[in-house]
């Protein structure tokens, strides 16, 4: 934890809120983002080393999934920030003729960003880009489960920003609860739905606004017209990057019987080419700790005991698990009841699409849904009949990387959106301002007799 208590950091940032309204404009926000970009650019070896120490993430994967997304978010924001900050004019209505209306985006104030352990660098600094772009200050709470990365984040922030603009609180549940007891103006949380409920309940005590980036069981549908080779490449990449510890990773795959055999063959080939046969591949991250590895093995053992078949892979050792494909799964198995969040992929064959759609719709709304087929009509049937936070057609996970798309969940998978302009809006309050120029509305003020009564009758006839 930093030298100051959460309450002291919060108080120091709150004391600057009024001053920042007039002193933290476009130039200052751009300068803060440019300092962050330099911080990331100059410390890439340290970032790579910290993530390797915490859970063995390969260097290339750190660059692709931790560093580049933050740099892209900064670059995109710098390019568009002037437009996002612009006051938006609104045309008058009949009853507001003679006035001018505008919407002014304002900073919310002091914000809390609680980051998870699975992408600890990206999911700490990505939201911070939007937070600073909107003119706020922030307290960051990185995960205690990735201590090397958490310590690095604290050091880099202290070297880059004054504590009354950005500060870091390290620690575990106790520190998180101390932060949530404070009346932050906005709370941005990334994590599980279970903890998201606790965060939302804590924020509700202060009527703080929230953005919740949660998770769920994101399904994949492989249609009868899919290019199975391409589908296998995308499913393997989306599922086994970060050893499956990704909130939008494919959780399970529905594959049409017409392409089941060639898809499985292509998927096996892709796994072998990308990761080899063992769990100790240099291209595969570790599970974050023994507890999570034990949970995954428990899910696998439960499924096998209830009749599931392991097609490839095995339990591995310690925090190393290989890519594991499982078939003959049933709804009562733990694998099909909770988010897997690891390199275990259930395969479910189907022949008729509607029962698959019914099954997806019967569960909590997923954070992502993926569909593969050469026939655009098949994909459209799936998308129109379901809902999810985001969706991908003939690819996986990459909608997260598009800065022009809002990223977020719906229902159980989240609340609100992040990235690009959506992130800027999440950390902003749209203030409505109406200015009187030559409004005729006083002609309708009481007493409601004579001319006022006749004018109201005239307006009423027009509006109805």
What overall geometry do the principal axes of the alpha carbons give? Answer: globular
Helix content: 40-55%
Query: Could you give a short account of the major beta sheet?
Result: 7 strands, mixed
As for the number of domains, it is 2
| N-to-C span | 62 Å
- How much beta, percentage-wise? 15-25%
The CATH C-level name of the largest domain is Alpha Beta
Query: Total helix count?
Result: 16
- Supply the helix-strand structural class: alpha/beta
The oligomeric state of the chains shown is single chain
Q: Within the CATH hierarchy, at the fold level, what is the topology of the largest domain?
A: Aldehyde Dehydrogenase, Chain A, domain 1
Mean pLDDT rating: 96
Cα-based radius of gyration, to the nearest Å: 25 Å
> Within the largest sheet, what's the order of strands?
10-11-12-9-8-13-14
Write up this protein.
This protein is 44% helix and 17% strand. With 464 residues, it is an alpha/beta fold. The chain has two domains: 6-214 and 413-431, 3-Layer(aba) Sandwich (Aldehyde Dehydrogenase, Chain A, domain 1), CATH 3.40.605; 219-408, Aldehyde Dehydrogenase, Chain A, domain 2 (3-Layer(aba) Sandwich). Strand 13 (368-372), helix 14 and strand 14 (390-393) form a beta-alpha-beta unit. The longest helix is centred in the first third of the chain and has 27 residues, at 59-85. It is globular.
């Amino acid at each position: 934890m930093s030298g100051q208590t959460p309450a002291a950091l919060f108080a120091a940032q709150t004391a600057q809120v009024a001053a920042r309204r007039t002193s933290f404009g476009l130039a200052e926000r751009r300068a803060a983002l440019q300092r962050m970009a330099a911080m990331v650019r100059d410390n890439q070896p340290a970032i790579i080393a910290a993530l390797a120490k915490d859970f063995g993430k390969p260097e290339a994967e750190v660059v692709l999934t931790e560093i580049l997304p933050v740099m892209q978010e900064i670059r995109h924001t710098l390019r568009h920030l002037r437009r996002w900050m612009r006051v938006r004019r609104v045309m008058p209505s009949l009853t507001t003729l003679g006035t001018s209306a505008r919407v002014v985006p304002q900073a919310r104030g002091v914000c809390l960003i609680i980051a998870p352990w699975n992408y600890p660098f990206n999911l700490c600094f990505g939201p911070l880009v939007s937070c600073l772009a909107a003119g706020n200050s922030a307290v960051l709470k990185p995960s205690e489960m990735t201590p090397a990365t958490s310590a690095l984040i604290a050091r880099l922030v202290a070297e880059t920003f004054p504590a009354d603009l950005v500060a870091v609180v390290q620690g575990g549940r106790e520190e998180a609860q101390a932060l949530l007891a404070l009346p932050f103006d906005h709370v941005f949380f990334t994590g599980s739905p279970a903890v998201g409920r606790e965060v939302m309940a804590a924020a509700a005590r202060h009527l703080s606004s929230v953005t919740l980036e949660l998770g769920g069981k994101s399904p994949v549908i492989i249609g009868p017209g899919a290019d199975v080779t391409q589908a296998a490449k995308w499913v393997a990449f989306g599922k086994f990057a970060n050893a499956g510890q990704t909130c939008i990773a494919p959780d399970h795959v529905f594959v049409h019987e017409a392409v089941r055999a060639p898809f499985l063959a292509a998927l096996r080939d892709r796994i072998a080419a990308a990761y080899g046969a063992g769990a100790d591949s240099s291209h595969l991250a570790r599970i974050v700790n023994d507890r999570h590895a034990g949970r995954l093995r428990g899910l696998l053992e439960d499924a096998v005991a209830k009749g599931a078949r392991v097609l490839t892979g095995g339990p591995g050792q310690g925090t190393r698990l290989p890519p594991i494909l499982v078939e003959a799964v049933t709804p009562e198995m733990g694998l099909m009841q909770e988010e897997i969040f690891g390199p275990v992929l259930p395969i479910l064959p189907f022949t008729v699409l509607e029962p698959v759609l019914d099954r997806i719709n019967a569960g909590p709304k997923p954070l992502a849904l993926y569909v593969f087929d050469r026939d655009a009509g098949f994909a459209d049937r799936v998308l129109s009949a379901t809902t999810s936070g985001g969706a991908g057609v003939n690819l996986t996970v990459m909608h997260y990387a598009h800065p022009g798309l809002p990223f977020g969940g719906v229902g159980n998978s989240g609340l609100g959106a992040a990235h690009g302009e959506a992130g800027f809006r999440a950390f902003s309050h749209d203030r409505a301002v109406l200015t009187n120029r030559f409004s005729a509305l006083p002609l309708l003020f009481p007493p409601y007799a004579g001319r006022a009564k006749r004018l109201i009758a005239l307006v009423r006839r027009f509006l109805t």
